[in-house]
Write a structure and sequence with these properties.
The complex is a heterodimer of chains A (about 120) and B (about 300).
Chain A lengths: L6 H14 L12 H8 L3 H13 L3 E4 L3 E4 L3 H27 L4 H14 L1
Helix pairs in contact in A: 1-3, 2-3
Chain B lengths: L1 E12 L2 E12 L3 E6 L5 H8 L7 E6 L8 H4 L2 E4 L11 H11 L5 H10 L13 H14 L4 E5 L7 H17 L3 E5 L3 H4 L5 E6 L2 E7 H5 L2 E7 H8 L3 E8 L2 E7 L11 E4 L2 H28 L1
Parallel strand pairs in B: 3-7, 3-8, 5-6, 6-7
Antiparallel strand pairs in B: 1-2, 1-4, 8-9, 10-12, 10-13, 11-12
Helix pairs in contact in B: 4-5
The chains are: A mainly alpha (about 120), B alpha/beta (about 300).
Chain lengths: ~120, ~300
């Protein structure tokens, strides 16, 4: 895994994605630091940083002696956060590339409609 | 806590300066990467830290004591060397038994499972082992020793990609269960870059980098695009490398990348391996430059 950003952020985002797509439901046990380290072949300290970030953000919480669990309401919270960054992350680059190709927002809307019909 | 501390260490072999004012720390219970070109001084550092050689000057401490001829320290240290030699007439079983007597944390069950994992024939004599099997034996001893300070100096000779991956996985899993200080010296930087927490880069006997791997990951970027736009972007950053093809320019810059880069530029992160290569090259260039002026000085 590598897109230049700190590894622990990428780890945290992967866990978040599992919460969002439902493969990691609320109030179930999340992967442990060592499981994440072994799976992604990264240093356990890095995996621990990722977990800590999720705890600070309120996505995971610790049950003493058992492990990390997905917090109630974590999915809604994450959806809200991802929707907020959707524009910056996807719409802005989309408009930028469209502009390069001489398409304006109207052309894009038509294209999006056409593609939505197909899928 | 620091497991290893070197302060102003120099080492000379006759007229050859192997280490030139080396100061470094290895924090306890981390995986460290000791990187550098052949002949940079990595093995000299490890020999001094494991009491197989001694410094010409400076101070060396391993777990707070000088390691040279110090049984207290050395019983806690395991050093798996590049092309490690074991007595030829020993069988694999003998070598493992000898190691079990040497290391107080030796885990015989773990050793057995590793022998199985690497498919090592226990009864075969050392001299009959293939190069890869010899390396596997070294890796097994290094892991099963569970020594509080373990050095792996390029332990891979003859190990194929599958066996190396197995080594990394086993190392990570066992380190997670039994944290200890591990020093990995290797040229295969891409393979270990996500495993190591701290990087020490040695070149020509000097420390070039001594930093956390995570902070190095965001240290440099490669910018590609139309020459003028790249020049504009690069202004004010220190440049590690430059390549040009017609009107297209690619530069490697150190210093964090600005969040928003112009559309026509392609900004990529630089891998640890690339960063090490560029940093080492830059140091070599600077040495040649200063060497040239020194020569001029002596001629007068």
């Amino acid at each position: 895994m590598d897109d230049g950003r700190p590894l622990f952020l990428q780890i945290a985002e992967q866990v978040e994605s599992s919460v969002i797509d439902g493969s990691l439901p609320e109030e179930t046990r999340a992967p442990s630091t060592n499981e994440l380290a072994a799976f992604h072949r990264i240093n356990p300290a890095t995996a621990a940083n990722g977990i800590n970030k999720l705890v600070t953000d309120g996505v995971l919480y610790k049950r003493r002696g058992i492990g990390m669990f997905v917090a109630s309401g974590a999915r809604d919270q994450l959806l809200e956060r991802r929707r907020q960054t959707f524009g910056e992350k996807f719409i802005a680059p989309l408009l930028g590339e469209a502009h390069k190709l001489g398409m304006d927002a109207e052309d894009l809307k038509k294209m999006i409609d056409a593609w939505s019909d197909e899928t | 806590m620091t497991a290893v501390s070197m302060r102003g260490v120099n080492k000379k072999y006759g007229n050859v300066v192997a280490l030139d004012d080396v100061s470094l720390n290895f924090a306890e219970n981390r995986i460290h990467g000791l990187l550098g070109r052949n002949g940079a001084g990595k093995t000299t550092i490890m020999r001094i830290l494991t009491g197989q050689g001694f410094e010409s000057s400076g101070s060396v401490e391993v777990f707070g004591q000088r390691p040279y001829e110090n049984a207290d320290v050395l019983s806690h240290v395991c050093f798996v060397k590049e092309s490690q030699k074991y007595p030829e007439m020993f069988s694999v079983h003998h070598a493992l038994t000898a190691a079990s007597l040497l290391y107080e944390n030796w885990d015989p069950d773990f050793a057995d499972s590793l022998v199985e994992e690497f498919e090592l024939p226990l009864k075969r004599r050392i001299k009959k082992l293939s190069r890869g099997q010899l390396s596997a034996l070294g890796v097994i001893i290094g892991l099963a020793s569970r020594a509080p300070l373990t050095f792996f100096d390029e332990p891979y000779l003859g190990l194929d990609a599958v066996a190396r991956q197995r080594f990394y996985d086993l190392l990570l899993a066992d380190y997670a269960e039994n944290p200890r200080t591990i020093v990995l010296s290797t040229h295969l930087i891409d393979e270990v870059s996500d495993l190591i927490e701290h990087v020490t880069l040695i070149d020509a006997g000097q420390v070039l980098l001594d930093e956390d791997a995570e902070s190095l990951r965001s240290r440099a970027v490669t910018v590609t695009g139309p020459a003028r736009a790249v020049e504009e972007f690069a202004a004010g950053h220190s440049e590690l490398h430059r390549e040009q093809l017609g009107g297209f320019l690619r530069v490697t810059l150190s210093g964090a990348a600005p969040e928003h880069s112009p559309d026509d530029l392609h900004v990529e992160p630089v891998s640890l391996q690339q960063l090490v290569v560029r940093t080492t090259q830059q140091a070599a260039d600077e040495r040649t430059a200063s060497g040239a002026t020194n020569n001029k000085g002596t001629r007068r």
